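Hi team, as promised in this morning's meeting, here are the two structures we talked about. I've kept the exact order from the run log so nobody has to guess. The first one is mostly here for context; it's the second one we should focus on when we meet again. Sequence first, then the predicted structure tokens.
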Amino acid sequence: MTIEAIPLTELSRQKGRELGPSPWHTITQHDIDVYADLTGDDNPIHVDEAAAAASPFGGRIAHGMLTLSMVVRPLREIYRVSGATTGIVYGFDRIRFPAPVPSGSRIRVRGRIAEVEERQDSVQVTLALAFEVEGGGDKPAVVADLVLRHFR
């Protein structure tokens, strides 16, 4: 999937622009296990098949923070800026995990350019993001506002 980059000088006129959806990406049990090992978050709903099966989720699910951290690839598929010297993730606001992501599920990201702020050295953009689970219904797995800074 090829997308056209938004010129840095045009970002201020892009408020409200819809982004995506990205292609689907799978979150595997291996991804979940590696994340659990790296972070120490070994809650049984993520790593223990029997315990997770007995939980309200009926099986192992991805960590919410793992799902959120997987934003980079799909974001690059739906949002690009040209003319910046560099860009950074400044932070996230209003992060919520409304629905689980079962192990082996496919997710994709949709977004909207919610805010654009011209700064002296950069343009700060807030993207309102929603992570969808394939076959997961209307409730997103993650909703968050991603704040980016694109430096001149």
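And here is the second protein, the one for discussion:
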Amino acid sequence: NGLLDRFLYLLKISTVIAMVFLGHCRVPTADGSLKQTSSLIKGDYILCHPTPPGGTPVIAEVSHILLEFDGGYMVRVTGTDLECSRRHPIKDPTTGKWIAADRIRPIPSSLRLVDTPVYSVLLAREAPLYTLIVEGVVVAALGCNLREGLSHTGEVSHPFYGTYWDVEEKMKEAHPVGFKRGRVVVTGIRRSGDDDGRTESFTRDESLIPDWAKD
């Protein structure tokens, strides 16, 4: 049964899938406008941390967008329009501490299985922080292990995709043409057998990619 197999596959990867959010989620850009994740492109400048009153905006350039066609369970963070993977590291708006999205309190208002594209963002290497703001919530960006943590102080570690350079190399191997253009499209993730579920490579099956997402 194809539908049953697909459901079981999504159920399996939902325990380790991380660092992704849905395309409708909006990100504040350097000019003050909001842009949907699905519309972000290489070279966009976005805010990577809230700006305190009278402070200077913390801005980073988008290096690559990772578009994944492997779905998974998504949670909607209570009181926001942020829908992200269950284990995505986010900054708790109440405590200011890093926490997995499905462990925030109050409990996320919804949990649903999606079979639609999910998105991740890789910021430029020189980004001051490896975070971005999505629907008003600070979330981890790809490669956040670089510099020992999301804010260079080791507040949280997230091994699933490895270091910044690991992510770059895996994206380039999976979709060379897309890597050059800044938009890498994959259909799955091959993970190690270790407990941390570290990504060994991204996979790309052309038959699973709709025409609008092909080169």
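Starting points for discussion:
The domain at 2-213 is CATH 2.170.16.10 (Endonuclease - Pi-scei; Chain A, domain 1).
The chain has one domain: 2-213.
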